[in-house]
Amino acid sequence: MTNHALQSLLDLLDLERIEQDIFRGASRPAVVPRVFGGQVAAQALVAAGRTVPEGRDAHSLHAYFLRMGDPGAPIVYQVDRIRDGRSFTTRRVVAVQHGQPIFHLSASFQTYEDGLDHQEPMPPAPDPETLPTGEDLLLPHRDRFPDPSVVDRLLEARAAVDLRYADAPPFLAAGDGPREPRSQVWFRTNGKLADDPLLHVCLATYVSDMTLLDSVLLAHGRGGWAVGDVVGASLDHAMWFHRPFRADEWLLYDQQSPSASGGRGLGTARIYTQDGRLAVSVIQEGVVRVPRG
Q1: Which residues pair with 259 in a beta bridge?
Q2: Residues in the chain with pLDDT < 50?
Q3: N or C end of the chain: smaller count of CB under 10 Å?
Q4: How close are the terminal C-alpha atoms of the chain, in Å?
């Protein structure tokens, strides 16, 4: 059964085809007054995937966030068919609002084939069923936020996804001092999904932009935008889809930060299925600035 929030997200990813290789997607407000980057990335991947021959699945994407998106206006996705080879298909997508590009994505799709196979083992992680839900985690701590309404906005923005932190997230750990730059989050959609592989990789893409820079904040004892001690935004994003997975089953998002410098922070991550298969690798760099004054 699909809950209302998940159905709303699925509707958001169901783009309107305007003409050949041009699609239009709706926008909606994020927790902050701009379009959520994961939404734009997921919609762009949907647009690319709809122009790909049947039987070819996404195996990588590389993207740049160019401008803040306007949540009050639709986004037009223009797809360029760069190449259709015997095994691989390449697409380029530009997301446009108000006549200006706000996002650029290149994605590659491949026909399945057998080959060499190895992976980094899944790290130890607690059972997701033993961890607090978003409501259990956030509602008791309203008084820790300068603006308590942030809690409601966070819960509303993430209502389509069951997101469970293995340890206290940055916005609850601010002021506790630096920690190891590592964060683990389990996630799955709040409802079952159709079997379309493109849908599952697009939903993982959507979620992947939610928490990836948390590990940067933890290294410095910062809470992020929610507590007002850091200003941040995604700059670029890359994903590699290694093995099939379902976004409506538990996935472990194991995140680390190898570096922060020059007002930027780097997050790297692996996404594992609950039975230990490495499904996705993710890298993102973002602006991470400490407010002056």
Answers
A1: 266
A2: 1
A3: C
A4: 49
Locate 145 and state its tokens: 């936020």
Amino acid at 93: V
What is the per-residue pLDDT across 161-198, written as a single tens digit (0 to 9) for each?
Answer: 999 999 988 777 767 788 899 999 999 999 999 999 99
Tell me the catalytic residues: 209, 234, 284
Rounded-to-integer distance, Cα 8 and Cα 118, Å = 37
pTM: 0.94
Query: What single letter denotes the amino acid at residue 171?
Result: F
CA separation for the pair 236, 2 (Å, rounded): 31
Delimit the domains of the chain by residue range. 4-111+128-289
Q: Which helix (H) or strand (E) holds 79?
A: strand 75-84
pLDDT for 6 equals 95
What percentage of residues in the chain have a pLDDT greater than 70?
96
Tokens of 125: 């992680």
For helices 4-13 and 37-49, the axis angle rounded to 10 degrees is 60
- Look at residue 224 in the predicted model and tell me its pLDDT: 72
